[in-house]
Amino acid sequence: MSGKRITKRQENLYMNKRQQGQSQETAAAKGGISERSGRRIEKGERPSMPRERHWRTREDPLDAIWEKELVPLLENEPQLTGLTLWEYLEDEHAGQFPYSVLRTLQRRVKHWKATQGPDKAVIFRQSVPAGQQGLSDFSHPNTEITIQGEVFSHLLYHRVRKRHCCLSLP
């Protein structure tokens, strides 16, 4: 078990077993960690999780051509995919960009479309089950109503239940 980081899930499982009254040995075995790691967890000596790295681990294979060749293509034809651009690279720069670069290129294209690509059309679909939505209105009628010769002042209530709803956007 040495050399492997203890996950948050393992730590939680260990602590849950300890709270249920199980021994350190049993709880550690069920959590997949050593007893010593269990003691460290209980003392709060657990090291913090590794920080995110902010550096590259290898050279960017698309660095030389991304801005000057691929971005102009995307600006002219935003619907291009990573695979299409990779095929373009195969035609223009035969053998320089292996198939393993495709996934990197797909990620780059996805990021470009999300941050710099054209806006997408927004559609708010409405789906209202029949009988669940309606319109209602109160109004003062123009005709005079009397009860035993006395004028009855009242409001007229009108409700219309929608049977179906459809909305078309231009």
How would you characterize this protein structure?
This protein is mainly α and 170 residues long. Among the domains are: 1-55; 66-115, no CATH class. Helix content is 38%, strand content 9%. It is built from 6 helices and 4 strands; from the N terminus they run ααααααββββ. The chain has helices spanning 8-19, 24-31, 35-43, 66-76, 82-92, 102-115, and strands spanning 134-139, 146-147, 150-151, 156-161. The strands form 2 sheets. Strands 1-4 form a two-stranded antiparallel sheet. Strands 2-3 form a two-stranded antiparallel ribbon. Strand 2 and strand 3 form a beta hairpin. The longest helix has 14 residues, at 102-115.
- Which regions contain 5 or more consecutive residues with pLDDT less than 50? none
Distance between the termini: 62 Å
Approximate shape: flat
Radius of gyration: 34 Å
Relative helix content: 25-40%
Total strand segments: 4
The number of helical runs is: 6
Order of helices and strands: HHHHHHEEEE
Q: Structural class of the helices, strands and pairings? A: mainly alpha
Mean pLDDT: 86
The fraction of residues assigned to DSSP E strands is 5-15%
Describe the main β-sheet briefly: 2 strands, antiparallel
Biggest sheet, spatial arrangement of strands:
1-4
Spell out the key features of this protein.
170 residues, mainly alpha, two-stranded antiparallel sheet, 6 helices, 4 strands, 9% strand, flat
Describe the structure concisely:
The protein is mainly α. 38% of the residues lie in helices and 9% in strands.
